[in-house]
Amino acid sequence: MNYEALYERILRRVDHGAYLAYADAVPDAQQAPMAEIGAYIQSPGFLPGTGRELARRFHAEGRIDRIMYLSALQVIAMSPAVGDYAEAARLLAEKELAAITVGGPDLQLHLASVDRHRGAIAFLKGSYDVALDYFSRAFERQRSAGNLGNVLAALVRLGDVDEARSLLSRIRSGLPDTIVDALNDMIQIDTDLALLRTEISR
Description:
The protein has helices at residues 3-11, 28-42, 48-60, 66-78, 85-102, 107-124, 128-141, 145-157, 161-174, 177-189. The protein is mostly helical. Helix 4 packs antiparallel against helix 5 (85-102). The longest helix has 18 residues, at 85-102.
């Protein structure tokens, strides 16, 4: 793979005022119900059917729109308790179509979420080169530390630790401190980025 082109692709897209956290892909009015769904999915007592029902209820009550509803269902399908990647992929396609149909100012954020989750499926299935491509696309649509962390994780899993370190060095010299700090924090807690922990300098 041409990593120089990857570096250029990532770094040329930098808009120092446009970095967003993943939660920014969720409209403000829907953050509380989506956070509740997320907390339930991560709880020890998580039951997929109950999670789906919670998402369905929030959608029926108008607390989350169709895009967020499909997103919640897709995250449930990808959860370790379910692991139904075919269903997750189907829901991602449906979410993508819903986002395109709705359009609007959040279109790129929704499409970034689709790319990120397609990358996550590829990553979980061991197709790290495919994951790298999707994660790079997600970053192009939504410039965030999380998406950069995913790019680095894919590089590490591909065995390209030196390339990941080189990209990390370039990121540190070319991105705002807030993003670098968020990325450093991710590296400290994400086991997929553990090999980069020695690269952190504060």
